Amino acid sequence: MRTKHDVFQQLRDSGVVAVLRGVDADTLIEITDALLAGGVTGIELTADTPGIAGMVEELDSTFGDEIAVGVGTVLDSETARTVMLSGADFVVSPSLHEDVIDTCNRYGTLVAPGIMTPTEAITGYEAGADLLKVFPASSLGPGHLGAIKGPLGQIPLMPTGGVSPDNAGDYIEAGAECVGAGGALVDYEAAARGDFEIITETAKEFRAVIDDART
């Protein structure tokens, strides 16, 4: 079993976590291959996707430790435990649920609840969260994340929601460990027509922007 530290480091090294919401099972492997070719090794599926457990198992068996597979939109401890048993390396929520944090810590799985305010950030961190998802990040922008990091520099943050190559670097410069990106990273129409190279190129663009911001 991979440790929380290993998973956290992989997400940070990736710089961007690809959020695959409602991804088609028929293109899941090809999309993940395309992301991996672009340097993105953090993959988050959403718990409301039909057949989610099987998808997590398929990614795990196909790619192994090449990627970190997570499940997002987890709102309760039962769902958290279910996806962990399927092989999820990390669990993400859009909001702060201490029962989810407790369950993930009980079984040694990295957990990233959603927060927006400094109060939520410190509450989640004290409850045992490993990474705090600032969501929806686009509502207040990189300046808000930087303001949270000012007094709470010890808390690792992952802005998600409205993150694109145009602003990903700003979030990293404001103190984010990594960013979460969905529609701005994964073009499902391109995937449907078999043009996975577009996804690879966008992944490379994200990585380049993030690497530049870290230097």
Written overview of the protein:
It comes from Halonotius aquaticus. One of its GO terms (molecular function) is lyase activity. InterPro entries: Aldlse_KDPG_KHG, Aldolase_TIM. The protein is α/β, with parallel strands linked by helices and 215 residues long. The chain has one domain: Alpha-Beta Barrel (TIM Barrel). Helices cover 46% and strands 15% of the residues. It has 10 helices and 9 strands. The protein has helices at 4-14, 28-37, 52-63, 77-85, 98-106, 118-126, 141-149, 168-173, 188-192, 197-214, and strands at 16-20, 42-46, 68-72, 90-92, 110-112, 114-115, 132-134, 157-159, 179-181. It has a 6-stranded parallel beta sheet, with helices on both faces. The chain has a 3-stranded parallel beta sheet with strand order 6-7-8, with helices on one face. Strand 6, helix 6 and strand 7 form a beta-alpha-beta unit. Helix 2 (28-37) runs parallel beside helix 10 (197-214). The radius of gyration is 16 Å and the shape is globular. The model has no long low-confidence stretch (mean pLDDT 97).
